[in-house]
């Protein structure tokens, strides 16, 4: 009775021979299905600055509008400190699956200058997803200081050493103040804090002399007379503070600073996820209700594609490194 044994043996060989042919199409069918089901659960968005900062405010407005379009909850988590590098590293260490994202500001591109030994490369390890826009940075000081202009600030620094606050070394608030300080020749020492609100409190009390911060964080204090706006760092005057001059029109060349905010992902995130996120963010920014909520923040749209966003970050990194070298800036 050899036939059954022969048949089974050949049947097994035939099955083994066919398995690659059968399995391959099955795998091809599974992979797109997984991509199509993203997002399958809640998404975590890390803001590397404290709650109430300009970046945090804008992130929450935009992502709140994106959430229902993705059909998932978006959890905004604040991880401040070290100029935004703590939050950025948390995203860098997370799986590149589109479920852990970063909302960064232009301080992100100052990392190679401020933290040359940072455990990540701000350009190579991250992909630009979508820019929310740019926000004017405004230089603020307590009225009790008796300083009413940038010229007064410069003069005061000649008479006695000043201090300036930021939301952390390497943050956008730090870099904006450094550009103004260098351009105007202001002698002042940097005093970093964990976040913008803490820094603003110290400036209001007069314990720290001045600060350059996103207008959305400082506007209410300006309106209440608790802080005086000396200048904005944009190339043109801010629509929410039309009476405040720019640092450029005051004659301080190269003092302007583009304070952008945007959504980033791990560089290894699937491109289809980056594309979907870009679309949903751009759609959210175009909605009248979102525009209305962003208006008090002074947000100016910057509709760049992900590749253009990446190119902008690389350009800024090169410019920041060049500026630090030319000005002989060193950071601990």
Explained architecture:
It is a single chain. By secondary structure, the chain is of the alpha/beta class. It has 2 domains: 43-135 and 259-327, D-Maltodextrin-Binding Protein, domain 2 (3-Layer(aba) Sandwich), CATH 3.40.190.150; 137-232, 3-Layer(aba) Sandwich (D-Maltodextrin-Binding Protein, domain 2), CATH 3.40.190.10. Helices cover 45% and strands 17% of the residues. It is built from 11 helices and 10 strands. The strands form 2 sheets. The chain has a 5-stranded mixed beta sheet with strand order 2-1-3-10-4, with helices on both faces. A 5-stranded mixed beta sheet has the order 7-6-8-5-9. α2 links the parallel β1 (43-47) and β2. α2 (54-70) crosses α9. The longest helix is centred in the first third of the chain and has 34 residues, at 3-36.
